[in-house]
Write a structure and sequence with these properties.
single chain, about 350 residues, seven-stranded parallel beta sheet, three-stranded mixed beta sheet, binds nicotinamide-adenine-dinucleotide, binds 2'deoxy-thymidine-5'-diphospho-alpha-D-glucose, Rossmann fold
Length: about 350
C-alpha cells in the first residue's frame, strides 16, 4: 500500500535508525523526515539513504504551528511517527523551557494539524507517539513498569514527555484521532550524541579523559539496542491497536557502575590497553538533581500480542556499539567540535 509518512526527529539517534529501516524496507512508502537539526540532529546519520527516491528531508520546527499546518497540506500525510524531542535529562535541568516548548507545544501542534486535516475521514490514518519509560517515575529495588503503571515523572524532561503522552491520549478520547503510544527504556547503539552515558564514556575513554559517574553509580537502567527499538516501532505502527500503549524494553538491567566496568573492559581490549587501565578513569562526581533510581520495563504485552522480542544480548550489542564509534572517529569528532566543548565544561568542569 502506498503511504506518505511524516517522521519527526528523523535526523536524531533513534529517528535515523527508524528512517533507515522504513526507507529500505518499504519502498512503497514516501518517508518525509522533518527535523529542526538542533545540536542532536545530524544529516550525516542518514547519508546512506538520503538519495533514495522514497526519502525527503524537510528542515523545520515543530513548535511553529503555521509551518506544521503548511507541511501537512503540502504532503497530505497518511501517518505520523513522532520522535522529535529534546531528549537529554541533564539539559532539561539546565534549560527546562526548551523541553516545554518542543515536547509539549510541538506535540500539540502536530496533534492539531492531524486532527484538523484528517477529521473528515480518520480511516487508515495513524498518529504514532514515541515516548519513554521515564514518565512512570522511579522504581525501588523491585517491580516493573507496566502499561497500566500510573504516571509519576520526576524531571523536567520526563514531565514534558508525560504531558505530551496525555495530550496524545486526550486527542484520541476527545476527537477520535487514531493514535498509538509506545514507552521505551534506555537505548544504546550507533549515532547517539555523546552527551548520553554510553557514547560520552566511549569518547572519554578513547581520549583518556575522566569518566564522570554521578553519585555512587548505583542507579539502574534497562538497556535496549536501538535497532530493536526501531523494529518494535515498525511492528507497533503496522499491527498495534488504535488507542493502545505498548511498553518496549530489553529485560536488561545494569547498575551504571557495572555497565561502565564492562565498557572499560571492552575498550581496554579494543585499544590494546592492559586490563583495568580504562577503569582508572572512573571519577565520582556530584549526583544529578532528582536522579531516578531505577527503570525496568515489562514488555510482555508487546511480546505476546505483537510477537516482538529483542534480538541482541547486551554484551554483543555493546561490543558492536564500541566498534562503531571507533570505526567512525570522524563522526564523533564532527559532533564534538563547536558548541560541544562549552556544553561539556558547563556540565562537568568543577562538578
Ligand atoms: P535525539 O535527541 O537524538 O534526537 C531528537 C531529534 O529531534 C534531533 O534530530 C533534533 O534535531 C530533533 N528536534 C529537536 N527539537 C525539534 C523541534 N523543535 N522541531 C523539529 N525537530 C526537533 O533523541 P533520541 O534519543 O533519538 O529520542 C527520540 C525520541 O525517542 C524522543 O521523543 C525521546 O523522548 C524518545 N526516547 C528516547 C530514548 C533514548 O534512550 N534515547 C528512550 C525512549 C524514548
Ligand atoms: O529511559 C529512557 C531515557 O533514557 C530516554 O527517555 C532519554 O531520552 C535518555 O536520555 C535516557 O535517559 P537517562 O537519563 O537514563 O540517560 P543518560 O544516558 O543521560 O544516563 C544514564 C545513566 O547514567 C543515568 O543514571 C545517569 C548516569 N550518568 C549519565 C551521564 C551523562 C552518569 O553517571 N554520568 C554521566 O555523565
Amino acid at each position: 500500500m502506498k503511504r506518505t509518512i511524516l517522521v519527526t526527529g528523523g535526523a536524531g539517534f533513534i529517528g535515523s535508525h527508524l528512517v533507515r529501516l522504513f526507507v529500505n524496507k518499504y519502498p512503497e512508502y514516501n518517508i518525509i523526515n522533518l527535523d529542526k537539526l538542533t545540536y542532536a540532529g545530524n544529516l550525516a546519520n542518514l547519508v546512506d539513504v538520503e538519495k533514495k527516491e522514497n526519502y525527503t528531508f524537510e528542515k523545520g520546527d515543530i513548535v511553529d504551528a503555521e509551518y506544521i499546518y503548511k507541511l501537512f497540506k503540502k504532503y497530505n500525510f497518511d501517518a505520523v511517527i513522532h520522535l522529535a524531542a529534546e531528549s537529554h535529562v541533564d539539559r532539561s535541568i539546565e534549560f527546562p523551557n526548551d523541553f516545554i516548548y518542543t515536547n509539549i507545544v510541538g506535540t500539540a501542534n502536530l496533534l492539531n494539524a492531524a486532527k484538523d486535516l484528517w477529521k473528515s475521514n480518520f480511516a487508515g490514518k495513524r498518529f504514532y507517539h514515541v515516548s519513554t519509560d521515564e514518565v512512570y517515575g522511579s522504581l525501588g529495588e523491585e517491580g516493573f513498569f507496566f502499561e497500566t503503571t500510573s504516571y509519576a515523572p520526576k524531571s523536567p524532561y520526563s514531565a514534558s514527555k508525560a504531558s505530551s503522552d496525555h495530550l496524545v491520549r486526550a486527542y484520541n478520547n476527545t476527537y477520535g484521532l487514531p493514535v498509538v503510544v509506545s514507552n521505551c527504556s534506555n537505548n544504546y547503539g550507533s549515532h547517539q550524541f555523546p552527551e548520553k552515558l554510553i557514547p560520552l564514556f566511549i569518547n572519554n575513554i578513547k581520549s583518556n579523559r575522566p569518566l564522570p559517574v554521578y553519585g555512587k553509580g548505583l542507579n539502574i537502567r534497562d538497556w535496549l539496542w536501538v535497532e530493536d527499538h526501531a523494529r518494535a516501532i515498525d511492528v507497533i505502527f503496522h499491527n498495534g491497536a488504535d488507542g493502545e500503549t505498548y511498553n518496549i524494553g530489553g529485560h536488561n538491567e545494569w547498575t551504571n557502575l557495572s555497565l561502565i566496568k564492562l565498557l572499560c573492559k571492552i575498550m581496554d581490549k579494543k585499544l590494546h590497553r592492559s586490563e583495568g587501565e580504562s577503569e582508572k578513569l572512573i571519577s565520582y562526581v556530584t549526583d544529578r538533581a532528582g536522579h531516578d533510581l531505577r527503570y525496568a520495563i515489562d514488555s510482555t504485552k508487546l511480546q505476546k500480542e505483537l510477537g516482538w522480542k529483542p534480538s541482541l544480548q547486551f554484551e554483543e550489542g555493546l561490543e558492536k556499539t564500541v566498534q562503531w564509534y571507533l570505526d567512525n572517529i570522524d563522526w564523533l569528532e564532527n559532533v564534538t567540535s563547536g558548541e560541544y566543548q562549552k556544553y561539556y565544561d558547563k556540565m562537568y568542569v568543577g562538578r
